[in-house]
Amino acid sequence: xxxxxxxxxxxxxxxxxxxxxxxxxxxxxxxxxxxxxxxxxxxxxxxxxxxxxxxxxxxxxxxxxxxxxxxxxxxxxxxxxxxxxxxxxxxxxxxxxxxxxxxxxxxxxxxxxxxxxxxxxxxxxxxxxxxxxxxxxxxxxxxxxxxxxxxxxxxxxxxxxxxxxxxxxxxxxxxxxxxxxxxxxxxxxxxxxxxxxxxxxxxxxxxxxxxxxxxxxxxxxxxxxxxxxxxxxxxxxxxxxxxxxxxxxxxxxxxxxxxxxxxxxxxxxxxxxxxxxxxxxxxxxxxxxxxxxxxxxxxxxxxxxxxxxxxxxxxxxxxxxxxxxxxxxxxxxxxxxxxxxxxxxxxxxxxxxxxxxxxxxxxxxxxxxxxxxxxxxxxxxxxxxxxxxxxxxxxxxxxxxxxxxxxxxxxxxxxxxxxxxxxxxxxxxxxxx
Length: 433
Ligand code: SAH
Ligand code: F3S
Hints:
The protein has four domains: 3-120, Rossmann fold, CATH 3.40.50.12160; 138-254, 2-Layer Sandwich (Transcription Regulator spoIIAA); 265-374, 2-Layer Sandwich (Transcription Regulator spoIIAA); 379-432, CATH 2.40.50.140. 33% of the residues lie in helices and 23% in strands. The chain has 13 helices and 19 strands. The strands form five sheets. The protein has a six-stranded parallel beta sheet with strand order 2-1-3-4-5-6, with helices on both faces. α12 (310-323) links the parallel β13 and β14. Residues 12, 51-52, 156-157, 159, 194-195, 233, 260, 262, 300, 302, 331, 333-334, 336 line the site of S-adenosyl-L-homocysteine (SAH).
């Protein structure tokens, strides 16, 4: 009989894909199958995020809860970025944890799963041959890694510490994976990396034929049967004109782009070591809007970075007004171990940061509402990817907006024209035409 695996995934798209790899390996090599029920699991895995402090604190209380609820003899594993940076300490603080596997060590899952108190967290591990078994939680769209790790040293960010230095996956492996995904029903792929447009800077030794990100996009777009390519996340610094032109003119690349701002103040951007200024960021966004009609631009913003003054924050509000982002992921700065900014003096007090975050989010909500409302009445091409409760099918417009219509199974994996009848803050509601 197959053993049962319960896996909880926190954090970013990279973690979602890492979880799929973990499931794939455990199904193939250790004869596990997935369960949604914690109580019946033989193995419980928490795939963690450590980008902010809160989820780390939550991890230990969660382990306690899982320990109580689990069936007798069930094992608990901690994987992902918190596993990388806390390592053995996790087992010291929570001895119920059976193994710890870092974000850079996913391919070692079957070697740790049966070893009591195994800890594998080396961040110099080379995983770029991506020799994983196959599993995708959704057959209609695929997440595909193109690079691992990150070479930047943004002063707030712990990711380079947890995921190690950046290595690109050879383009042949990527294209082969795209082909496999398409052959098994995915018409849409999302290329993944911490800094996708830095693709091609470094491969593991012995790999030749380096390509840059623009060339990789061209290669991937040649795969027959593939309709839409998305990618996340690019870095504003590396958005050169050659890339923007490819983004604009390649019909398979979806008109959706994440341009992580972090701060609108050039002074703060310098302290963050982001490598671009407010002017460069605005110039890129303006260019994208001009070159790609109907493009959607999303962003990440941190408020309360050490030394952020009221004027600095106003600069961020100014960028918000000018770019009018389709989507905003905004965070209160959280000091992280092993990062330069955690040592900076002038930490902004929590109340001030919260007030700024509320103001930013409130203004963004108004903008988002206007943008979404303006979509009513339009006919959009929607790619359907999953069923929702109440007889609804869910899909995405080319620019990534969630669309719900009355519909069933036969819509999945197809592109349909949908007339948008109504819009909420996050969702377009419509009918097939
Ligand atoms: N390159 C990655 C970034 C990973 S971190 C990507 O583009 O997906 C994701 C986001 O978390 C960052 O863009 C940043 O806005 C936020 N973040 C990172 N470190 C943070 C910190 N110490 N405090 C608050 N937010 C942070
Ligand atoms: Fe983090 Fe900056 Fe890399 S945000 S993941 S160090 S590009």
